[in-house]
Amino acid sequence: MASLIRIYAMVLRHIYLLRGSWPRVLELAYWPVMQMILWGFITQFFMGHSEWVAQAAGLLLAAVLLWDVLFRAQLGVTLPFFEELYSRNLGHLFVSPLRPWELIVSLLGISTVRTLIGVVPAALLAIPLYHYSIFTLGLPLIAFFTQLLVTGWALGLMVSGLVLRFGLGAQSLAWVAIFALAPVSGIYYPIDTLPNWLQPVALALPSAHVFEGMRAVVLDEGFHAGHFFAALALNLVYMVLGAALFMSVFGIARRRGLLLHSGE
How far apart are CA 55 and CA 48, in angstroms? Predict the structure, then answer.
């Protein structure tokens, strides 16, 4: 009986933890739903376009590698910032002459380093394993990499700002936010595979234009300047919004003393 009481108490403790943290509850339902949506669109596209995929050697490998750029660029901003929160070091940093914009630039710098360390070995390993080199994309690869890197930065700054505002209980947003973009970014299928009502949402994302441009290059349709400049303009907007959100929340946190009391 005593064992049952202790087990019940532990279960109840974590239920209370879930009840008091909406991001945790959201996360439980989020992943199965997101996987279902993403693979549903992939299956729907493959059923009608199997020959299209067969003509594009390395198309899926290129998509996976470029998606990882976006994924790691975003985590490259949020995870180092979370580490400062875990160690409760944020307040100590700003006792020094460090300015908020300098913190932002440093996070973008470490994000670039982490992304290169994560993606380049995978790209090189794909050459002997699958006889595919993403470097055959040539100069467009630099454009794709840069645009996805900036998109990841913008998203990372937004997530970091929200976590600073709501505490580490919201840290799952770092994974929730990035994978929310996957179904509407057209990573593995063209944007016209999406329902008509969802296509304008996709085209409002820089990542969708990058992956559309990547497919055009891989399928020998040439570099699509329209998608590049659309991604460039959208990234400028999102970077401004991301930096503004982070700076605004940082100001609130400083006034309320949250920098010294960051946590759940």
Answer: 14
